[in-house]
Protein: Flavin-dependent thymidylate synthase
Amino acid sequence: MSDEPTAPSFRGDVTVELVRSAAADSDVIWAARVSTAGEQSLEAVQQDPEKSKGLINFLMRDRHGTPFEHNSMTFFISAPIFVFREFHRHRSGWSYNEESGRYRELQPVFYVPAEDRKLVQHGRPGKYEFAEGTPEQHRTTTGAMEAAYRESYARYQEMLAAGVAREVARAVLPVGLFSSMYATCNARSLMHFLSLRTKRENSAVPSFPQREIEMVAEQMEEQWARLMPLTHAAFEKHGRVAP
Structure:
């Protein structure tokens, strides 16, 4: 523990970095064509882009999902803990490693909603609609959060200074604390995640994600789309449903 405690800081964004990938549209084609053509080289697969586009669309449309699993992407994500609690509901095709409050002193970086974050909720479960908050509601929200964060982190530092174990002292910290993790997935598992954690007009199945996890999903989708543009286009074309 440092002699001078770090002052709390507050942020309303999240960050997603693609740190490693082995993912391309050709991986999908290569995996799919083994069913009819046997073993083949990736070079042969890449020779006919239009044929590849057609096959990927066929696989997506008819829900032939396993060819989309033969690839890998690892993202480094910084977001509030409550986002990760939702994230970890996605288990099939995912691997996670999150920073540990048992082994390191947690830094005082906390989430407060940005000014464009809708604050007012109407309706019932499954039918929620969100509306803009007033400037006064935003001030109330950020003020209450920042005061609670400062108090909880002061008590955390107090326990650490008294020699209390980090794994015990962390219990006082709120889910608005920022954490970080590596998340590894394949394109099929990512598409399932995106179908649930983004809201789009062209989605075949409506979804109502919490905005903060949608912010993560949007950044992941943008980076995946650059790696696998044909697969992403087919995902969009066929209603954003994972095959």
Notes: The chain has a mean pLDDT of 92. Residues 9-237 form a domain with the Gyrase A; domain 2 fold (CATH 3.30.1360.170). The longest helix spans residues 135-161. The chain has one domain: 9-237.
